[in-house]
Amino acid sequence: MSSLPPLPNPTLPLLTHISYYVCLFGLRTLFRVFFSLHSMFKSPTPSTMPTLVKSYPSAPRLKNRIFYPLTYTSSSAPLPLYLCIHGGGFAFGHPSFDDTVNAKVCSDWNVLVISLDYPKTPTVRYPVPTQQLVATILSIFADDSLPFDRRRVAIGGYSAGGQLALSACLDPQLKGKIQAATPFYPVTDASISAAVKKDTRPYRYEGEVDGLVKIVPLSHYSYIPAGQDLRAPGLSPGFAAREELPEWICAVGAELDILGNEAGAMMGRLAGKELVKVGETEGLGGQDRDGFEADGGRLKWVLVKGAGHGFTHGWGASKEDAEKTKKNSDEAFRIVGEWLLNGPFKVGK
C-alpha cells in the first residue's frame, strides 16, 4: 500500500540495550509476582469463568480460554466465532485478564469467544507470536468439537493484541477464513517513535503525561529485531493494502491515547481518505477524525472521546473516572457488537 522505502530497526547502543533489558526483566518479574498473588488471593467470579480451557499440539503450553453463551445447547445452531487476543506490550499479560470482558462479549453478542494465548518477548520476537497465533487459529478451524459457523468468524484484540490480530489476518493461510477484524486501540505503526506519537493526542491539563510514552520504547526494543523493516505490514498493519485484510474492519481508538492517531490513519488509508499533518506525522482530519464509515459500512472507525488506553478494561481509571470509563467501555462494545451482528455475522448476508 505504501511506496515508502524500508526503514530498518536500528541497533541500540550497548548501554541503552542493557538499560532496556534490565527494565524489561524487572517488569516481567513484577508481573509474574502480581499474577501469582492475584491467582492465590482473588477467587474468580463464576460468571466470568470460561466454559473450558484448551491447548493444541502446535503449542501445548499455550492455554486458550473458550466461552460458550449460557443459552447455548447441543441442539443450537452453530455460533459466530470471536477470536480475542490480549494486550501487554508483547511481553506481559495473560488471557485470563480478559475474562470479564470476554464473558460480557460472549453473553451480549451471543457468540462463541476464544481468548488466544501467544508466546511473549523477549523469549521470542517478531514474527513468532503472529506465526504461533496463525497455527492456533488453523487448529481451531480444524477442531470439529467447537460449534461455530466457519462463515462467520471475526478476530479482535487490545493494544498489542490488536496489532497481532491484524498481523495474523495478513497470513496467506488465513485468507478468506476470517471475515472481520475489530482491533481496539491497536499498535499499527512501528515506524513512529513514542516521542512523535505523544504529540498526536490532546491532553486534559498542562503537564499530563501519557503512561505509554515510556512503555512503547521498551516494547519496541523487546519485540522487534534489529534490522527488521519497521514498515513491514505484518509488523505495522497501517501499511497493509486493503485487499490483504478482512472484508470487514471496525477499529476502535481512544481520544486520550498516543496510539489513537495511528489507528485512525490506518483506517483513513484503507478508506482512501486524504490524511492531514498531525504533529510530525499524519492522521485523519475534520469530522473523519471523530469517526466514519466507508465501503458500505465494511470499514468503520470509532473514536471514543475522553477515553484513554485500556479503557475497555478500566486500566488506569481513578475512582472518580470509573463510572465514565465503564460507560465508554459499554458503549464501545455495543457499537462493535451491533456492527458485527448487522454485517459480517448477519445470517444470509
Explain this structure.
It is built from eight helices and eleven strands. It has 349 residues and is of the alpha/beta class. The strands form two sheets. It has a nine-stranded mixed sheet, sandwiched between helices. Strands 8-9 form a two-stranded antiparallel ribbon. Helix 3 (128-141) packs across helix 4 (160-169). The two termini are 29 Å apart.
Overall strand count: 11
The helix/strand class is alpha/beta
Largest sheet: 9 strands, mixed
- In round numbers, the mean pLDDT is 94
Share of residues in helices:
25-40%
Number of helices: 8
The termini sit apart by 29 Å
What is the helix/strand order? HEEEHEHEHEHHEHEEEEH
Low-confidence stretches: none
The value of Rg in angstroms is: 19 Å
What order do the strands of the largest sheet run in, or round the barrel if closed?
Answer: 1-2-4-3-5-6-7-11-10
Beta-strand fraction estimate: 15-25%
